[in-house]
Amino acid sequence: MKINKIAIVGGGTAGWLVANHLGKALKGDKSASITLIESLDIPTIGVGEGTVPMMRDTLQHFGISEAEFISRCDATFKQSIKFENWLDKDRHGDNNFYHHLFDYPFPMGEDLTNYWLNKVATSPYSQTVSFQEAVCENNLAPKHITDPEYAGQTTYAYHLDAKKFAKLLAENATQNFDVSHVICNVTDVQLNKAGGIRSLITDNFGELEFDFYIDCSGFSSYLLGNKLGVKFIDQSSKLLIDRAITVQVPTNGQESLKPYTRAVAHKAGWIWDIPLPHRRGVGFVYASSYMSYEEALQKLSHYVGPDIESLTTREIPMQVGYRERFWQDNCVAIGLSQGFVEPLEATAILVTDFCAQHLAERFPRDREVLADLAKRFNDNVSYAWSKVIDFVQLHYYLSDRVDSAFWQDVKNEQMLSEDLRNKLLRWKYFSPKSTDFTSKYEVFDIENYLYVLYGMKFLTRPQQLNSVEEDRMAEIEAKVKQHAEYLSAELTEQRELIDKIKQYGLTAI
Fold first, then answer.
1. pLDDT tens readout for residues 167-185
2. 502 within some domain
3. DSSP string, 113-165
4. Pick the catalytic residue: 5, 24, 27, 78?
5. Separation between Cα atoms, residue 99 and residue 189, nearest integer Å
6. Which of 236, 282, 327, 392 is 20 to 30 A from 120 via CA?
7. What is the pLDDT of residues 446-474, one digit of tens each?
């Protein structure tokens, strides 16, 4: 039986990313139709979102102009996550920090990690292996106004307004990929004899029947979890963060725009701070077992300042974990309906984009291939989720903070997966290598681990260098520093470039 009629249940960033990926993949196939069904009664969660560099490739793949995206979505450039106070203040000083940069830490193609380990006290790891930290600390943009769209002097992603982003994606999907947009509430589901979904019952259009269903309904997981009964695997014993209080903080539009997300640790979690042109998206992320809502709100107020009294705050409970399966019969869950961990490292949009692309690469056009593709998808996505949890856990486990029960408890080695425990043991004697990451479904790879490990002062026994190696690597380090100084002098402050792009645009590739 052919699969021609496809329904996406739920809009927002997840639903419209799926619509664009599938629309692009099936463009020109006259027998295929895609309908996105969206309820206006369900609010979106985003208060300003962070992305990773993969989003540049995605937007370019969709045919979206970078200049239009920046203007329409209040986007700013993101080149790093700056982790502040994740280490003990007495040992490392007040306001200690490190950067998880987006540039690869292999300047001139050579890994300087062992060279840095032999001289670890002289400078931070990120300054030795990358010129991008200097760009970030000077609040500079990653590109010139003359650089083509999606090209830059450094690797970058974006901060963006999630609601405006979903609107832009919706326009692109409906206008360029012929995706139909239906506004209604899905009130029930009819199942078929095989245990899949036969049809949706809606308030405005009655019964709507499709061949394949994509669940982008958010935390409710209305199709896969609620109606098909796929269990949720709770991971709260591994990741203790389960709440966030969010607020949008207006700015005067004149401040210097930081080209990174701030992640500021506190006694029971951390604070995100995302700069957009006219506001900051701030979230106080915490573990409710270690801090009450009242204390969390008080600490958020202290961070934001007295203006918070006139602003609207919102508490978001977090279901930490993921579904036992993500694809069952003719239904796939993508986005929050699939799973969620705390927003450290911008995992939500990253995993959504990854899974939407994975689905679109081999979307089934015949029921005969459903079982094979479902198994492949479930295996790969389950692996990806397990590695996301490993990477987020790593940040807490490596911290040497002991100033609260939270920071003491998150360093319990038994909370780690066996694979992560083995890697950490190996990395005591050998720095990470690409062979430690053997699957293309590793959402975070060697470069991510290197920045976090050595930003958090992880100790690896250095391998001895001969004089020739040391001289060659010292020369590379000097070139990195020289290029950092060059970019610091040549690149434009971020807000200035954003304003120029809105006025003049960028050169299309």
1. 999 999 999 999 999 999 9
2. no
3. HHHHHTTTTSS-HHHHH-SHHHHHHTTB-SS-TTSBTT--SS--EEEE-HHHH
4. 78
5. 47
6. 392
7. 999 999 999 999 999 999 999 999 999 99
pLDDT for 45: 61
* 470 marked among binding-site residues: no
Determine whether the annotation assigns residue 76 to a binding site: no
Annotated catalytic residue 167 = no
Ranges 114-123, 204-213, 270-279: which has the least confidence: 114-123
pLDDT score recorded for residue 300 = 97
Same domain, yes or no: 43 and 179? yes
Q: Please say which residue of 331, 363, 387 terminates a domain.
A: 387
Instruction: Confirm or deny that 12 is annotated as ligand binding.
Output: yes
Which residue type occupies 447?
E
269 is in an annotated binding site: no
Q: Is there a single domain that holds both residue 132 and residue 264? A: no
- Coil vs helix vs strand at 320: coil
**Which residues does residue 66 pair with via DSSP β-bridges, in sequence order?**
none
CATH number, domain at 211? 3.50.50.60
Q: Are 473 and 110 in contact (CB under 8 A)?
A: yes
107 and 143 share a domain? yes
Q: 288 is in which domain, residue-wise?
A: 243-317
pTM here is 0.95
Give yes or no: residues 191 and 302 share one domain: no
14 annotated to bind ligand = yes
- Residue 318's contacts (CB-CB under 8 Å, 6 or more residues apart) are 241, 242, 243, 244, 340, 341, 342
Please state, for a pLDDT cut of 70, what percent of the chain lies above it.
Answer: 98
In this prediction, residue 47 carries a pLDDT of 47
pLDDT at 475 over 80: yes
